[in-house]
User: What shape does this take?
Amino acid sequence: MNWTKLIFYLLLFAIFILAVVFYHSIIYYLVYALIFSYILDPFVNWLEYHHFPSWLAVITIYLIIAGIIAWFTSRLVPALVQQGNNLFNILASGEQLNGQYIITLPFISRIYEFLVELDTKIPGLGIAPKMIEILDQTNVFLAKIPKLLIDNYKRIFSTISIIATVPLMSFFILKDKYKLRKGILSLFNNRYFELCIIMFRKIDSTIGNFFRAILFEIIAVGILASTALTIVGVPNSVLIGATAGVANIIPYFGPFLGGALAVATVLINGSSILYAIYVIIAMYIVQLIDNNIVYPVVVGGTIKMHPLLVLLTLIAGGWYGGILWMLISVPLVYITYNLIKVLYVNLKDFKII
Amino acid sequence: MLKDVFAWLKTIMKKPDKYADLKLFPVFNECSSFELYLLSNFLHKRTYQAGEILYDKGYPLEVIYFVLSGEIEVTGPTHPQGCYVIGKNQVLGLIDMFSEETRSSSAKAITDVTTYVISRFDLLDLAKQNPHLGVKLLYAFCQTLSNYILTISAIKAKIE
Assistant: This one.
C-alpha cells in the first residue's frame, strides 16, 4: 500500500467531511436549485442553440418567468387570497364551527341522527356525544392554524430566503452546467468514466423529464380541477383546484385528497349530499382526463410501484418531513430505485462487479 | 510601415483559436466556430497510458473517441485482418455507433493516447437540436465510413 496515497486520500476525505459540515445548511437550497435548473434547462438549451450566450439565455428565461408570474399575480392572486381568507375565517371562527354547529350540516346531521338512534337502541353506548367531542377537538386544532402561521414566522422568512437564493444558484448552475459536468466527470478514472457518463445521462433524462412532466401535470390538473369545480359551483374553486393539482403528485392517494377537500368544502357550506356527488363526479372526470390523456402524454407512463410500497413511503415521508416530504417521497424513491437498477446493470456489463 | 504595425497589432490582438485541435479532424472540417463551440460543450479530454484498455468486446456502447495523439489497437470482426491501428485525428467507435448496444471489438492503447470523448447520445441529440450541424456531421460520418469500406475492400481483395 502506498502510504503517501493513503494519507492524501484521508486528507481529501477529511476536507470533504468538513465541507459537508460547513455547507450542510445550504444543501436543501442546492437541491431546490438543481430541481429548478432541471426544469428550465430545455428552454435555456433552446436559446443557446439560437446563438444566445448562456448567461443571456438564463437571464432571458428568468425575465420571461418573472413576466408570467407578474401576469398571474395580477390576475389570480387576489382571487386566491380572497378564497384563502374565506377558508381561514371559517377555520378560525371557533364559535361558528363547533361540534354543535357541524352536526346541523345536512350530511353530518344524518350521521348524527343515526348515531343518536344507535345510542337509544344500545343503552350506555354514548357514541353521539363522543362525536360532538371529537368535532370540538378538531375545531380547536383547526382554529390554531392562523396562529401557527404567525408563530412560525422564522420558517416563513426561511422560505422567502429560499425563494431569493434558489434562482441565483440556478443561474450559475445553468450558465456553467457544461463546465460543472466536465469537472465532475474528470474526477473519475478511465475505468469508471464511461459508466459515469451513462449514469449522468440517466440522471439527466430521468430526473429532468420527471420534474418537468410533474410540473406540467400539476398545472394541467390544477386548471382542469378549478374549471370543473367552478362549473359545478363549488366555492373557493381556484384554491381547491390548485391544492388538488399539487396533491395529485402522490400516486393513488393524491387524487382522493383533492376530491376530499372539495367535498368537505361543499358539506361545510351546508350543501346537500347530491351536490357533493356532483363534485365527486367532476373530480372523477378530471382524474379520467389526467390518467388517460395528461399523464400518459407528459410523463409517458405511470410510476410503477406497488400501492402498499407507495402507502408505506408516504407514511415514512410524512413522519420524516411533513407534507412536503409526503409529496416528494414517492417520486424520490422511484427515481432512486431506477438509478440503482441502471447502476447495477451497467456495473455488471462493464465487469466491475 | 503603418500597414506592418497594423498587421503586427492584429496578430497580438487575435485570440488563439480555441477549436484548432478539433478542426484537424476531417469529420469537423465543415463545422463553423459556433457549431464547434456547441460540440465542445459535450467533449471530454481523456488520456490513456500505453497498454491501457479503452474498452472490451461486450461492454455497453456509450462513447466514441476522437484521437488527438497516440495510437490505439482495435481488435474485432469489423476488419478483415481482425486487427487494425487507429491514429491521430481518426475516430474510434463510429462503426458500432448506429447499430450496436454493446461493443463488437476491443481497443487498447499502443502508445500514450490523448482523446476527446463524447457520448453518442449527446452527439445525436446535438444533431437533432441543430439540424444544420447534424447534416454536416452525418455527411462527414458517411464519408469516413465510405472511405473505411473502400479501404477494407481493397485489403480483402489483396488477401484473396
Summary: Chain A touches chain B at residues 45-46, 48-49, 51, 178, 182, 185-186, 190, 193-194, 197-198, 201, 346, 349-351 (CB under 8 Å). Chain A has 14 helices and no strands. The mean pLDDT of chain A is 81. Residues 180 and 285 of chain A are 45 Å apart (CA to CA).
